[in-house]
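Could you join me in thinking about how sequence relates to backbone shape in a protein? Label the sequence line and the structure token line clearly, so we can match residues to local backbone shapes. Once you have written the record down, we can walk along the chain together.
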Amino acid sequence: MGDALGMPVEGMPHNEIEQVYGSIKNMMDGWLPKGSYTDDTQLMIGLAESLIECRGFSGAHMSRQFISNFEPHRGYGPGTIRVLNNVKEGQGWHEAASHLYGGGSYGNGAAMRIAPVGILYYDQPEKLKQVAEVTSRITHAHPLGVEGAVLQATAVGLAANVDLIESGTLNKIDFIEQLIAVSTLDEYQTKLDMIKSFITGPKNHTNNDIISALGVGVQAHKSVPMAIYCFLEKCGSYRDAVCYAVNMGGDTDTIGAMTGALAGALHGVRGIPEEWLEDLENSQKGRDHIMKLGEDLYDLHIN
């Protein structure tokens, strides 16, 4: 949902979005038709399909599923295209990404698709971390790319663990401190500490201050922290969280997708605006297929 909402303004700075649109609140036509998803969601679909079919992780199967689903018009990054082509030509799935850019990509391509791992293993943190790491390495082998996916999957799992009916709210401080405990790299620890200060300190920072501190770029460490912040800042509403993320500018489809995954894990499908559901692409692997994948992940978890 966040992917499709952010797609039309991908690459636009926050100030330009504000000048041109005021605020993005609903689906619009963009470089794809209104309500269309991008490579972010297509890769997420392949990841979920593979987990369900294999009843867990299989690198060989998951990489083949990515290749089978591949539609170039969705806007894939050049690194992911190279990796998938290498696997298609016979290179092992576990090594194809490690040669990219002299040590692997640290883009956000692994984090943007990782939500099904967080959902499936939300109550098994060690298993969640392990599967998040290996799924990432299919296309993004750099430590920054891997840790971004681990943090996003962990955050999805934490959000899914919260019972809003029972608790009434999300404990933001506990949430961010659990992510800080998982982080091992300075690039993420520094930004997670900034998020903690933003949500606990005085509200005298502007959106531009937040963008400058956390980033809105295609690199994992310049987008995963922003998604986590947007979710925590607007965690009371699925709609508010996703709109807030998309209007920050930059890699809007991916930051929207990651924020939406977090808000969706917390609020469930009940929190999604009905008009957004109606506008979402419903092709062969569109809205209904994705909803069924969610049901199948739940069945796999309980069985």
